[in-house]
């Protein structure tokens, strides 16, 4: 693309509240989810799951199940597991040592819900009945369900890890002299419970194996169709071009659907052993019991301050529960908690140490903002430090938060912050709130015996981190003979509105009317490779891919139009799905006319002008744009009923910097969704186990989710500091879920401060609050 034409690329749609293109089908019930897929003769799968947290599998008798009409097969570990060729995930890579992950339990069940056998029948109903008829001879064994008691326990989850520690890491050791001599030192033990992604649509697959051609087609509820395809090819030992993954609509993922889990492996392996396509749809009990846990951390944190409240040092030492079968390489990914712990503050010294610990519970899975504990622990500690130093938490943050004029800034763990100004989002949130006004209201309420509280939470996070297989993204843009435009990206509809934003970006890149642009996503047969929806990468990476492919096609359109209009290429402007001569708007040609000539009259094109109206490009982030740092401040006010422990959230404010917004509606929707999940984690959601490892919250009767009655209207503030990448766009997918939980806990603690109560063990349920108040009174 010439520099002259590049200057004429206008942003007519990016930055505007374009209605979501996917809403019509989704809101009218015309979406296509995995369970909507029906194939001729399709069979259905159901797993036999262990009722014990730990037990030896002495034998499996499937004769009664196999005798039932409509039952086609019962597979055990001996049938499926030996067929595994390779089972590594791109998120870790093939050369990284990983923890065990057999498709079906081998010899020993390691958590309640561990898949032990797979039943295939004519219907899900028959498969469930047959699963109950499978007789598994278990010998129950002692289990370790509490990961805080697992290190060095006589109960060993995996023989390869006799101390139940998968691994760990330490940064620089704590500067104990600084802590010993500081004017103020605050410390806390912060325990976060298990809570999970809980997408509306549970996991699911339809796998169809065609033996004659050795081709496999898979319809999947996934965030990463191309990685699912590659994983399946590796797993089965077949060429990747023989595997096709089709992802239509996905009812939420939140990280849980990034990598194929053990059940997915089983369905892929079993599909080659049955005479028809095989469908597995996870039910809600299975999802809560075995689709993975998240957030379960126990840690000790410290902060040293000087007499003026300036941070001198921070330290975090924590253990992370990874369950029995975590998703790939939990040791390294957990390091992010320690690396990011200094947060968006001016911290001269930081130290961290951690262990990842096995337990007889469901394995650790990715969840929106998987390093969220660093913000939770730091921000709770920040308020504790403020009360100890006698400084308002707002003022203490103001004295320590990083400003834009300090960038670039390396945190003490070497993380390179740039293109951010955390002080800006913080001050905007304080202004929206009216901090002084609230403090007066709070004092007046306390005089009446009412307990109001205010909590803040500030964080900084890396988005669009372009490392490993996440470092590139592909895009194909094709103008059809009608002049209409299709844009092909890996994408996929998981609630992140990538369909809408990619249409906006493409329309701007080509100067097309947005109604002339459509997108095709989620089908590996026709879309370029992409790493999918994870790590808040879709916005910045897809923008880069669209920009590169768009520039190629734009140059071609301009060359065609210049020849047709008999003007220089530098004097052609693309807008409104037309090519127009600069300074002579009457001299123009429509995209439809250009496309007609390219496809049906190519011989009329001048020599040297290609008839191609299709461009494919692969965007790779340059070294200076490997990370796009986003940041936000959350502010929450609440009222706590000290008799019942009920918490009522009264206001919720988010000021966020994600760079220029491609679509403010989409940005705010992402913030809102994550914020609600964080509120649920603070107040309600709790995946509990008893001492024997039995799950106590495997239905929505026991696992409580936030609804519209628990969540106030969210007020938004936007700070737009462009990032280093294309368009200055940063990611927005995870921030709400990171910042919300500590803001809510800090608001509760602020309300209860007059009673001497500080909640550091989550969730802050009514019972927990009442108990804490009673303990303080004693």
UniProtKB/TrEMBL annotation:
GO terms for molecular function: iron ion binding; oxidoreductase activity. Pfam families: Ald_Xan_dh_C, MoCoBD_1, MoCoBD_2. This is Carbon-monoxide dehydrogenase large subunit. Transmembrane segments: none annotated. It comes from Mycolicibacterium rutilum. Its cofactor is Mo-molybdopterin cytosine dinucleotide. Gene3D superfamilies: Aldehyde oxidase/xanthine dehydrogenase, a/b hammerhead, Aldehyde oxidase/xanthine dehydrogenase, molybdopterin binding domain. It comes from the Bacteria. Keywords: Molybdenum, Oxidoreductase. Residues 28-142 form the Aldehyde oxidase/xanthine dehydrogenase a/b hammerhead domain. The keyword Mitochondrion does not apply. The lineage of its organism: Bacteria, Bacillati, Actinomycetota, Actinomycetes, Mycobacteriales.
